[in-house]
Design brief:
Elements lengths: L1 H9 L3 H17 L3 H17 L4 H20 L4 H17 L3 H17 L3 H18 L2 H16 L1
Helix pairs in contact: 1-2, 2-3, 2-4, 3-4, 4-5, 5-6, 6-7, 6-8, 7-8
């Protein structure tokens, strides 16, 4: 994946580069290399910015932003960068009207708000996430949204 990412970026095939950079980041994470995984996610997002921004590429970018958020959280990354990534993910999900991804982003925003002690924001984001989960029938999102809601309400 790393070589394909490199060659696609050198050839300015940005959507292809973003795909392979994301895969390289996932491989780095599987090896336990958080620093490499974070760098790979950032590269994938940079390539996305240069791409044509198709719906599929935008969906991948949202997933990469959520992955970046998780990696930054796990490594005590900057809360400002985490919030920025989540804000962009929300904007992209709204832009392509992807309610399910938006629900997942809201669940992540709820977690970040809770970590920062912003329990009202955490609760509001969890409620929005739960609404999407119930509309879509996504049981995993519903479970996570209920968990996030519980954290916000009882904190």
């Amino acid at each position: 994946a790393e070589w394909m990412a490199h060659h696609a970026a050198e050839g300015e095939l940005w959507e292809t580069a973003a795909v392979y950079q994301g895969r390289a980041a996932e491989r780095a994470l599987a090896r336990g290399s958080y620093v490499e995984a974070i760098a790979g996610m950032r590269e994938a997002l940079s390539s996305f910015e240069k791409s044509s921004r198709s719906r599929e590429a935008t969906q991948r970018a949202i997933d990469h932003l959520r992955g970046l958020r998780a990696l930054l959280f796990a490594t005590a990354g900057s809360p400002a960068e985490i919030n920025s990534a989540l804000a962009l993910a929300e904007e992209l999900a709204r832009g392509i009207e992807d309610r399910l991804r938006l629900g997942w982003v809201w669940a992540d925003q709820s977690a970040q708000s809770w970590v920062e002690g912003e329990n009202r924001q955490a609760t509001a984001a969890a409620r929005r996430s739960l609404e999407v989960a119930e509309e879509s029938g996504d049981l995993r999102l519903r479970a996570l949204a209920l968990f996030r809601l519980g954290l916000g309400v009882y904190a």
